[in-house]
Amino acid sequence: MTDPSAPAVELEDACRDYGERPALRDVSLSLETGRTLVVFGPNGAGKTTLLRVLATLLRPHAGTVRVLGSVLPREGWAVRGRIGFLGHEPLLYRDLSGRENLRYHAQLHKVDEGRVEALLDRVQMKARADDPVRTLSRGMVQRLAVCRAVLHDPELLLLDEPLGNLDPAAAGLVEPLIGRSGGATRVVTSHDPAGGLEQADLALGLRDGHVVLLEPASGVGSAEVGALYA
Amino acid sequence: MSTIAALVRKDLRLELRTRESVPAMALFSVTTFVVFHFGLDRSSVAGDLASGVLWVTLLFAAMLGINRLFVAEREQGGFDGFLLAPVDRTALLISKALALFAFLVAVELVAVPAFVVLLLGPSPSGALPELLGILLLADAGIAIIGTLASALAVQTAARDLIAPLLALPLLIPVVIAAARATTPLLLESGAESVALRWPVTLGLYDMVFALLAYAVFDFLLED
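^ Those are the sequences you sent over. The predicted structure of the assembly is below.
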């Protein structure tokens, strides 16, 4: 049974390995509903692994992971469909158009196709919506990937460097969908200390899979986050 | 059902766009019949030889499709996109088997007439319903076993090698039963009735592997 009053995300000594190599080690944290956790750390620190564990795409090898009140991986079925995941890959078929991809995902999530058209409009992709994804620029693909991630109006957004391929104008277009103003609980990875802290309620620093920083963002300075990359 | 329909539609649409599997499988079949034509140094074949040539060719053509069945899911994030959706994972197994079945039927629409023109001595026109039934039963087996083998192989780096190594031994009974069932339909003296045990064997084998695939497929999608 899921507990609606439980934190949106709760980890206790969560571990995840890739073969012999540890990717996450004893990660413990709690994130309240509607708050934003920003995860900092150099490449290979475990940020993407953390997001994939929370998204039910990877099993934790030890510890406890609760997402939206459900224990993973045992109750993963209960949270799929309530999570929006935007990773490094857009999860779009290159030979289908943006509209076809979004309609396909809408059918999987039992979402009305009108939502697809509304989202294409919101990110100003209607004009290129029937072009194969392989013919679009990285920024356009990222806009479509944002649409895919929020298509089912998820309660929890897991965003891996979501603005990476976007110019400022495009970033402004997707902000209402994946930004703080959307109201969803968010876990966001970032390499931008100042920008990341600006949108964070809680800051997490990872290095080699270990937690080296976990504090309310208001008490953390850019220099402290920047030191993670030194 | 709507999930399966969405998945099958997506697979067929991708195949129509990329034309990666069916044209290659059909071309392979026709080319192989030409090779048999010259390799056997015979203008026509009949009986068990004809049946063997037909089924071995269709089996190896099917391997081309089996190898590519999950490639888009693996390389373009299809697995993740599917796993993030609140749907029964078995839908992926069923949809992929249906897609492969459709590919095989499409290939046979080209390959079987080509076989009749290039190699077959006796006309199979008197036994078309029986031949069609055997083709569909064998296609079902190839689709189910091929989907299972492909799902296993695609998780490995050497998927092009692993898929045939897994699928071919499991498909030997399908080919044996299909070839034995087809032989009486392709006799020089005219088509004879098919011994019931071979279609029944095919049907039972299909059913056993359908149940096996249903039981294990969820585990294949786990990380």
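The two ends of chain A are 44 Å apart (CA to CA). The longest helix of chain A spans residues 138-150.

Shout if you want it in another format.
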